[in-house]
Design a protein that fits this description.
Rossmann fold; five-stranded parallel beta sheet
Length: about 200
């Protein structure tokens, strides 16, 4: 975590941890919680294997974990302290780590997943390549991510709002689907969500 920009991201999330859940409460209510539930219905239980959560944040996904073993990490110790309060008996190891330089051997995990993470990683393709490296061959990764809308008329609006969003952490105008492909993942399923009113 010595890189200057990565250090800035860590500081940003350490500062935001105290009120992060309150900031996202409306989005959670209208859409995010529903989408998290759908993601974990797709993931299913690890069945004795090990699942990796990339960027656990304040632990909002922990209530949706199926029975099984997990490792979850975040770049911010203060976000992790919030996540620890949500462990609730889950078989999960919570670690401080940077997705751009993971402390795991190649071919370690059976499943990897993230929710709203690669919108804020400084070098998303590098982080995605690290996620690919630590996955076992032919295993699956699932990403629920913010992206630039495909509706062209909305794109300038997201570009305009992006500096404000970046103050809290995420970028809202990234083409994460392209980054995933550039990290040598084979895309087998892609689904776009908008809001509870359009979904």
């Amino acid at each position: 975590m010595s890189d200057r920009k990565t250090g800035i991201d860590k500081l940003r999330y350490d500062r935001a941890a105290r009120f992060y859940d309150q900031f996202e409460s409306a989005m959670e209510f209208f859409s995010f919680t529903k989408w998290r539930r759908r993601l974990f219905d797709i993931i299913g239980p690890p069945k004795g294997q090990i699942g990796l959560e990339i960027g656990v944040g304040t632990g909002k996904n922990l209530p949706f974990y199926k029975d099984g073993r997990y490792v979850a990490f975040d770049i911010s110790e203060k976000m992790l302290s919030k996540a620890r309060a949500r462990e609730d008996g889950k078989d999960v190891s919570l670690l401080l780590a940077d997705v751009e330089s993971l402390p795991f051997k190649d071919n370690t995990f059976d499943t990897a997943f993230s929710t709203f993470v690669f919108c804020s990683v400084e070098n998303p393709v590098k982080g995605l390549k690290e996620a690919n490296r630590v996955l076992k061959t032919d295993r699956k990764a699932l990403f629920l991510e913010h992206m630039l809308p495909r509706i062209r008329i909305l794109q300038p609006v997201f570009d305009f709002l992006n500096p404000l969003a970046r103050m809290m952490g995420p970028e809202i105008n990234r083409k994460t689907d392209e980054n995933i492909k550039n990290a040598r993942f084979k895309m087998t399923l892609e689904k776009n969500y908008s809001s509870r009113f359009l979904d």
